Amino acid sequence: MNVLKPNQRATVYTLLERGSTQREIARITGVDRKTVRSYQRRRQAEQSNSPGVATGPDAMAAHVAAQIPPPWPPAPTSVAASLCEPYRDVIEAQLRLKRNATAIYQDLVDVHGFAGQYNSVKRFVARLRHKEPEQFDRLSFLPAEEMQVDYGEGAPTRVPGSDRYRKPRLFVATLRYSRASFRHVVWKSGQQVWAELHERAFRHFGGCPQYVVLDNLKEGVIKPDLYEPELNPVYAATLAHYGVVADPARVRDPNRKGTVEHAIGHTQATALKGRRFESIEEQNTFLAQWEKNWAAKRIHGTERRQVQAMFAEERPHLKALPLLGMQYFEEVQRTVCDDSCVRVEYSSYAARPAAIGSKVRVRIFAQRIQIFDLQTGTLLRSHPKAERPGTVVLPQDERVFNPSRETRLILRQASQIGEHAARLCQLLFAIEGRVGQRKLWGIVGLVRRYPAHCVNAACAQALEQGIYSFKRVQALTEALFADALEAIETQAGGEHVTPTTATLTQQHELIRDADEYGDLFAHAAATAAVGSQT
Asked: If DSSP states are collapsed to H, E and C, what string results for 199-243?
């Protein structure tokens, strides 16, 4: 038999005395019929074993009254003093140091000989410790001074190509002065998407604010820091293009951007709650219409003014938009290879003056490539983007010497020798191509041993003879040079040279006396002898 509580047992006995059936008692009390039957038998046995005991409703009431416990004694009017009261000053000093009740109890026992229990200290500390409400200043801003941005969740939207619904990311940008907002949903976020959403917001408002306050999400802030946060380079370049300064909120400080937090909650609870959309475009169209028809026309609860009217005041203060939009890029790090180039998308681009083996930062635009110094951020080079993979964008004057590719250099040096040498070298290259450049280098190298006019004259004779050969030019040059030397010697031997007698000067202010020179030589000899002995 299940044991019923006193109140349930009294209810069963009362209903039995009134003549209720077991089924009815089970329905009223929720007690199983078998249990009711057992208590009915028990009650009948008690009555049969106690003759002369009153029965009926009065007896049942007396039985129920006997089951009710007596009331609690009244609370004392005076509260006993706590054992911690003599140590109030010590405990208050410890509380000002942000110490907990356990540490305070341990110090009281060790230092002051406290004889009470820990719970006594705990209760006393709870009465002393009172939390002052934190005060928040009501921030006020000038028109076009600040815009707050953040992400939320949009309404469930059908995923393209499937029957599944998923919540996209809801981007909200709110002007702090007027509370006018721009709302847009996207499937995926990233560095460029985050920057593009800001650009859409600027275009929607028709101008740019001075500051933008954002959370420390990775799309905007790479490294959060209280003093010098590091921004995403694409995001930083976008804000610089529009003349806007980023002001990231401190970590775990959502109250700094409470305006956009409220705007996200208002959008989710009012505009998107309970809705589903078949496409992301449909949801963006709905958000634009809702902003225009309802959100912009509402009366703001704090300012007690219409948002649309406040935005009309703020819009003339927004900074003008640039004529051209932001040109987005991808930023990567590359190492300068041994040909002084960096590899970007299977093409090579000149990186000088960056040293070979150094790291550089490369920005990849749609139509151009920019190379920056990794440490100083200085722009080193800018190149048009190659149209096909494998292209080498390297000027000729920066290329290392290559004998099979320096035809123009050879021909320029040949033209410096003379007209005939330049003509002969051009004919040799035209006839033999790249292989003929070896002969060209030989002809040009003759000027290191023979006069240039001899080499040029030899090339003229080779042209007349129709022999286009380096050895022929070399032989003609040697012959011409030998003939020139012989002519000079013959001319010098046929002339009579009259000997001349030179008169030496014996007396001059710069000429010293012979004795002084003798003393100098003697002193030098003595010094040399002493040095050899040591």
From this structure: HHHHHHHCCECCEEECCCCCCCEEECCCCCCEECHHHHHHHHHHC
